[in-house]
Each structure stands twice: as C-alpha cells, then as structure tokens.
Amino acid sequence: MIVIENVYVVPVTGAEIPSGYIAIDGDRIVAVGAGAYEGEGERVDGRGCLATPGFVNTHHHLYQWASQGVTPDGTLFEWLVASYRLWGRMDAEVVHGAATAGLGWLAKSGCTTASDHHYIFPKGRGDLFDAEIQAAREVGLRFHPGRGSMDRGRSQGGLPPDEVVESMDDILSATEAAVRKYHDPSFGSMLRIAVAPCSPFSVSGQLMLESADLARSMGVRLHTHGAETLDEDEHCKEQFGMLPVQYLESLGWLGPDVWLAHCVHLTDDDIRRFAATGTGTAHCPSSNGRLGAGIARVSELMRAGAPVGLGVDGAASSEMTPLAGEIRMAMLLQRARYGPDALTARQALEMATMGGARCLGRADEIGSLEAGKLADVALWRVDGFYAAIDDPVVAFAYGQTPPLARLIVGGKTVVEDGELRTVSDQVAAEAGAVAHRRLLGN
Ligand SMILES: [Zn+2]
Predict the structure, then answer these.
(1) Which residue in 149, 137, 157 sits closest to 173, CA to CA?
(2) Ligand 1 centre from 388 Cα, in Å?
(3) How far is the CA of 367 from the centre of ligand 1 (A)?
(4) 311 Cα–ligand 1 center, Å
(5) Distance from the CA of 313 to the center of ligand 1, in angstroms?
(6) Angle between the 92-108 and 425-440 helix axes, to the nearest 10 degrees?
(7) Within-domain flag for 429
(8) What is the tens place of the pLDDT at every residue in 72-89?
(9) pLDDT in tens, 93-131
(10) Does residue 350 carry a pLDDT above 90?
(11) In whole angstroms, what is the distance from residue 323 CA to residue 336 CA?
C-alpha cells in the first residue's frame, strides 16, 4: 500500500482536491479524497506537488528515435521519401535501442501508457515487433503496439519504394500471429495489440478492408494515419476520387474501435461523422507544426463529442518532443487558430489523459484518478519557481513543464526525481544513441 498525501489532486473526471491523498494497493487506486488518509501504508509526501493521471500517448513510431534530425526540413511526402530507404535498413537491435530511449523519454514526460505504430518490417532482420515489446517491459510502461503494414509500393501508385513493402498475405498472417501471441485483453493489461496499416498512400484498399475484418474478428482496435496533409488530400482525390475520411469510411474505417493519427484537414461533415461514430483522433501538434501540415480542428472535435488524445508522433518528424509539452502545444495552437477560449489548460490535460484512454478503449481503466482504476499517476513539482502561480494547473501547463517528482505505473515507480528507475537514464540514452549510429552505419 502506498499513500500519496498532502497533494493537489486533479482527478480529471471529478472536482479538484487542493490538499488530499491517493491510496494505492497493488496496481489499483483504492481511495482518493481530501485531508488525511486513515489507513496504513508507505507515505509519499506530495507537498508542493500536483497529481495528475499518467498521460496516454496515442501515436508514435518508436523506431524513428534512430533517425532523428536526419531530414530536418520538408513536407511529409518529401520527408518520407528521404527516410524510407534509411528505415529499410533497420533491424531488431535498432528497434530495441530506439524503443528503449523513446519509451524512457515518454516516461520522463509523464507518460504511463504508450501506443506505437510500427509499419516497416524488412526481411531477415530479426523480430522487430518483439524487440519493441521487450523494450516496453524493461522501461515498465503500459504498451499498445500496432502491427503496422505497407503493401502499396511505388509500382502500385503508392509513395514508398517497393523494397520496403510486404505482401498482403504476409502482413495478414504476421498480424494475426502477433495478436495471438501478445494481446492481453484483461483489466490492467500491460500489453494490447492494434491492427495498423500505415496510410492511404502506402496501403491498398483491399488490405484496409481485410485488416478491419481481422481486427474485428479478434476483438482488437484499428489505427492508421488520416487527413494529415493537403498532399494526402490530392493523392486521395486523384487515386480514389474522394477525400481521405470519405475513403476511410468507404472501407469501414470509422467506428468506436478506430483511432486515427493527425486528422488535420477535416471537413465539417468529417467532424460530424467522427462524433457520430465515436472515431478517435490522435492529435500530434508538434509534428504537424514541424512538417507544416497545419493545425488540426481538435477543439471542434472535442466540442462535438469525438474522442481526442495527444501523441508525440515519431521522433524523426518531432525530434525530442516531450508528451507533457504537447499539452501546452495543443492549447497554444488551438488558441492561435480559434482565439483564447478555444482550449483551456484543463481541457488540454483531459486530452492527454481521458481523451487518450478513450482512443485506446480503456476509459474504464486509466485516464483519471478514481478508486477502482489502475494506479497510473504523475506527480509534478509546482513549488519553487512555479510557486509564483496560484493555480497549479496553470503552473503546470502554460510554460516549461515542471519537474516530474514521481511517475507510477500500475503501482510501480518508473520515474523518481526526474530520473528513470527501471532502466537508468544513462542506459536508455545510450541505447538510443547506439541505435542511431547503427542505423546510419557509423
Ligand atoms: Zn505517424
């Protein structure tokens, strides 16, 4: 039993508690309240701290830690074309090292549940999917890797070179095998698999249809990229005679079991369809800015009732992006587009927690601090310099993210005083640097 006490609690789903406690037994929260907790337990003094639910990262490509900074400018399509050949050289060691660093970095910015979207599987280079799962076990985060795929190379009108795509049969059998081997649907699961073909411009319509059938027959979720850039709009109009969201809907890819990365360029009708079908959006504001994609209409999606979570996206298009910082980025960019009442700090915090939990289908387990939910908790130091601001949520969200005093995943401490306690900072950083050198061949 662990009791965090004297802490400012932001449960996200209920009223804030200026001085209260969170009691944790095993991997669950057993009580949250004001004042002192009467029961036994190891005490953690939360004085000067803000307690939030652990953050949920809804979109990433962990392998990209190894190719950060390699293509620092350009549009999405220019950046992808420059990156595909390099990514085609990765092996299981690169993926393990990149994932260790990427997941460690996420943990250090308050993330307790991470999804990943891995869609390149060069032949004869080891078990890449298993490599990232091992890394997540070592770092200690709840993990939702998507078995990604691409089957539409350049000769078929797609964007990637033919040598980095797989055949549809290989993809479907490997995806089914990954779900059977790893997916744990139980309450409190540390590992769930999604089916995740890459994007309209690298995947055939047939693979999208078959992937949706496979995921639904196995009871797992669906993830892909959608409506990220105007180039993608043009590609879809040219190749399929419709815009990306219409195309996805025609293939059965809107629904409560689907979450889509980016969704920057949505029509009013798309927003209504997302809300009506419960389709989730993984909002990645830094990546969208970095690639000049645009500012997504996420405050409109939230107002319409559609699930919206936050994501850092792959590190090669969003270098060193901390998940906690995306709360600020989302808030500021929505205000830059729509005005100062577009997104409050508390709404952006909700996006990072309950919004992400809804996208991953785990709203009953994570995303808020409530008795019965999993003990995924972040403690932020809002004393020191931050004590100049009375509202601790404003202190947390408006400027540089305050220090992370502790990160707890399922009752276990993963970060303490800003440093990883599962693998060390030094091990995670070195793993990422070695993966980078190995991928670049020097
Ligand atoms: Zn992405």
Answers:
(1) 149
(2) 38
(3) 22
(4) 9
(5) 5
(6) 140
(7) no
(8) 999 999 999 999 989 999
(9) 999 999 999 999 999 999 999 999 999 999 999 999 999
(10) yes
(11) 20
Three-state DSSP class for residue 434? helix
Distance 349 CA to ligand 1 centre (A): 21
19 and 165 assigned to the same domain: no
Number of domains in the chain: 2
Kindly give the distance from the C-alpha atom of residue 59 to the centroid of ligand 1, in angstroms, as a whole number.
6
Q: What's the pLDDT at 76? A: 93
CA of 284 to the centre of ligand 1 (A): 9
| Span from the CA of 418 to the centroid of ligand 1 (angstroms) | 27
Instruction: Tell me what pLDDT residue 442 has.
Output: 67
> 173 CA distance to ligand 1 centroid (A)?
23
Residues 130 and 36 reside in one and the same domain: no
Kindly state the percentage of the chain with pLDDT values over 70: 100
What separation in Å is there between the alpha carbon of 160 and the centre of ligand 1? Answer: 14
CA of 250 to the centre of ligand 1 (A): 22
- Tell me how far the alpha carbon of residue 296 lies from the centroid of ligand 1, in angstroms: 14
Ligand 1 centre from 198 Cα, in Å? 8
Statement to judge: residues 39 and 160 lie in one domain: no
User: Tokens representing 213?
Assistant: 């059938």
Neighbours of 370 (CB within 10 A): 15
pLDDT of the residue at 414: 98
Q: 410-441 burial, b for 16+ CB within 10 Å, e for fewer?
A: bbeebbeeeebbbbebebbbebbebbbebbee
**In angstroms, what is the span from residue 304 Cα to ligand 1's centroid?**
24
> Residue 25 Cα, ligand 1 centroid: separation in angstroms?
36
What is the Å distance from ligand 1's center to 285 Cα? 12
In this prediction, residue 125 carries a pLDDT of 96
Do 235 and 339 lie in one domain? The reply is yes
- What residue numbers bound the domain in which 29 lies? 2-53+365-420
Mean pLDDT of 275-297: 98
Q: pTM score, two decimals?
A: 0.98
Both 85 and 25 in one domain: the answer is no
Residue type, 130: D
| C-alpha to C-alpha distance for 188 and 431, rounded to whole angstroms | 28
Query: DSSP letters along 55-123, please?
Result: EEE----GGGGGGTTSS-SS-HHHHHHHHHHHHTT--HHHHHHHHHHHHHHHHHTTEEEEEEEE----T
Give me the mean pLDDT over the 276-285 stretch: 98
> For all residues of the chain together, what is the average pLDDT?
97
**CATH number reported for the structural domain that contains residue 300 in this entry:** 3.20.20.140
Rounded distance from Cα 18 to ligand 1 centre (Å): 38
Q: Are residues 134 and 238 in the same domain?
A: yes
184 by Cβ neighbours in 10 Å (0-12 / 13-18 / 19+) ranks as exposed
